[in-house]
């Protein structure tokens, strides 16, 4: 559990900003104690300071996870958001895409969101904006990046991709071992 | 139906058909029902015509019959029975002698022809019987013969009515029932409608059937009563599983009422052995496990348990209260085609799944962390633990994280939760589940649980769901049936003991809200449950408290030769056959002192085990009951003994534990007084000199003389027993008396001779008491030990002391 380097912190926040915009600061300034990002084996954990102190009593070799894993830095030093971050991202995300019940399952298997499965989309979503995918019952089920703006979606072909798949909660089953 | 009109303008009536607008189709009734309804209807013209015709026909029939009866009376007529038996008689005619044949044949035909002329209704009545008799020729021979007698009588005398009585007398008992009555009927109730006749006949038939059935029952019962012990051959050549099953049932029945049902010359042992073998073959267990199970359950219950262990328990899920509510989840799942119900009143988060059209472990709700698949029994330890918000809690064997996430959910993600598991691969499941369920206050680590006290201590609550043989979840993993033997169990409970001690060490007794340890296993073997807890009770400053679970059976206090601490009845056992959940055991311990009454050094332990192996047994005996001598307690000695037993857990001699009442338990100690006294006293002395750190200074040379040590002890007692010295003296006296009376040992007399010796004796006895030990320790270490702990100890001491006094008084009165 080490502090993130400046460079990596910047990369991390840039990534988070893509999804939750200015709400990033809400992750840092919280009413229920201070929270921080810590890095362990290229994984980034979001953890409260209080819990961090306790976690430091555990030897690094024996520590499996503490707090919430947000994602990992790839070998090319890019940050990849994991589905485990959804707990924190979903409530703050300004842009969302709702998918129809019929295409929920498709998305959970790792497919992109196509026009025919699109239930709703936040107004004025720009292109290549990080979005949270939710079901019509408002259950967040993953992240994506929009392929088209809201306006373009209206006139899109039924099979046209609206949002690219990035992570979905199906990964909890599909790739439990590589989750963290 | 439909929506009610709302004429008041303020309330807006929704448009559209509404949620329940789908109309029910018209009800479909059975034909019979509809007919009944239509009876009131007017008949159509044709129906009327038909009815009239029917009536007419009926009248004609009646007249015909009357005419026939008259004809019968005038000409000798075969009875109804005869007519019934017609066809069979014809077949049997071959059996008769020649002269009989001569007159029989023509008559028969005549009768038949007459019968043909008979009314259709008559025939229809008897058709059935004819058929029956045709099919059962052989069976009915007796009856038909009688009929023939009738015939001959009739023909010879030509006086049907007058001779009927004689005929009756000729008939066998079997036929007299039906045939006579019928003949009576034909005479007296000639006016009866055919349907009435049929009715009467039916009733008789039923009566007979019932009688037969009764007879059969009696036969069966008498058969059951005499279950014959199978011979060697039968045992060596097993036939079918059904037979084995039947034999199991029989043996169980015999065992349940052994005195009356046993075979002469067979002992109970033989029956139980037979049962054991049969159960092993039928349920495919290995003999060892079956033997163990037979010791736990009475036979009847055992069979129930085995049956229940064959069937999987219903799938249950736990609502993740961090993300959703049970009602919402239930609604969502019902919409997906899942048939579910709340698990019971005792849980607010559990749901039972009866059937499902979708895989319950892969619905979007599951993936979104709204619930987790978890056996109902797994809720229990967490409920017993009763975590509070903002506590620091440890789950020592957490994988795959079901119980740990339950704890986090109850804590509402506050405080800190340590989820530990020894298996690194399995911790991945914990990580996955925690993230899925949105548990953010958790630290997941991968230690051997036994080393956890070295990592971090001071938890408010600790949950230990220990690895076990899994005898409670045979339905889940049937391999348990055949793979477990004594060694596995021993390995398991050794590990469990160490883990439980580690768990207790991790817990903080001074916690304002907690200080609790919950121990649970999914095994039902007392070796892995009560015995482990009993072990911990002796070696740590913990006591059992009620689990807070309002169902489940009480834990064992006695099991075979084991006699556990009486408070073990506060633990809870759950069985598949009684509670319809996996077999489970839950015990809740409250830690009342952080002092570890044991030496920290393993080397010390070993030495002690060598030196003081004699001391162990009395210690354990005393544990059970001798709480009264608290004041005299010499903690160091206790420490020694405990540590000694620590080293060799298996060397416990359970048989000695049988003696639970204070007097008896005293005896072993007195027996070994000579040896023990000296050692103990020496150690005490040394410890005093060093100002007694709790556990370290026990292995001391035994050099000093007995007399010195005695004096030491006396002074000790005076110092220590300030609070209840009077009571103590009384107690001592009582003990003295008892010792005298028992006179089992030579050394006893020595003890009685001098006060000093008596006191030391009492000391020895009291040394066995853990709590007492704690107290003494406290006194010696007053400056070091915290106040809270002290207070607790005092409370304990006093209450227990009182109890002891009461006990003693009772014994006095008895003696």
Automatic annotation (TrEMBL), chain A:
Gene Ontology BP, a term: ribosome assembly
Organism per entry: Leptidea sinapis
GO cellular component: nucleolus
Domain PUA: 95-174
SUPFAM superfamilies named among the record's database cross-references: Pre-PUA domain, PUA domain-like
Localization annotation: Nucleus, Nucleolus
Protein function: Required for proper 34S pre-rRNA processing and 60S ribosome subunit assembly.
Name of the protein in question: 60S ribosome subunit biogenesis protein NIP7 homolog
SMART domains tied to this protein: PUA (SM00359)
Quaternary structure note: Interacts with pre-ribosome complex.
UniProt keyword RNA-binding present: yes
Ion transport listed as a keyword: no
Any one GO MF annotation of this record: RNA binding
UniProt keyword terms in alphabetical order: Nucleus, Ribosome biogenesis, RNA-binding
Protein family (similarity comment): Belongs to the NIP7 family.
TrEMBL record, chain B:
Species for this entry: Leptidea sinapis
Catalytic machinery residues: 522
This protein's UniProt keywords: Methyltransferase, Nucleus, Ribosome biogenesis, RNA-binding, S-adenosyl-L-methionine, Transferase
Ranges of biased composition (kind: Basic residues): 12-22, 43-59, 676-691, 736-747, 776-787, 804-815
Positions of the UniProt region annotated as Disordered: 1-197, 598-755, 776-815
The keyword Nucleus appears for this protein: yes
GO molecular function, one term: rRNA (cytosine-C5-)-methyltransferase activity
Compositionally biased region (Polar residues): 662-673
Compartment(s): Nucleus, Nucleolus
Family under the similarity heading: Belongs to the class I-like SAM-binding methyltransferase superfamily. RsmB/NOP family.
Residues that bind S-adenosyl-L-methionine: 397-403, 421, 448, 465
Protein name per its UniProtKB record: SAM-dependent MTase RsmB/NOP-type domain-containing protein
Biased composition (Acidic residues): 79-93, 119-139, 148-157, 176-191, 602-614
Compositionally skewed regions (Basic and acidic residues) per UniProt: 1-11, 23-42, 60-73, 158-168, 625-638, 703-722
Domain SAM-dependent MTase RsmB/NOP-type: 305-592
InterPro entries according to UniProt: MeTrfase_RsmB-F_NOP2_cat, MeTrfase_RsmB-F_NOP2_dom, Nop2p, RCMT, RCMT_NOP2, RsmB/NOL1/NOP2-like_CS, SAM-dependent_MTases_sf
One Gene Ontology term, aspect cellular component: nucleolus
One biological process term in Gene Ontology: rRNA base methylation
Keyword Ribonucleoprotein in annotation: no
Signal peptide: none
One Pfam family linked to the record: Methyltr_RsmB-F
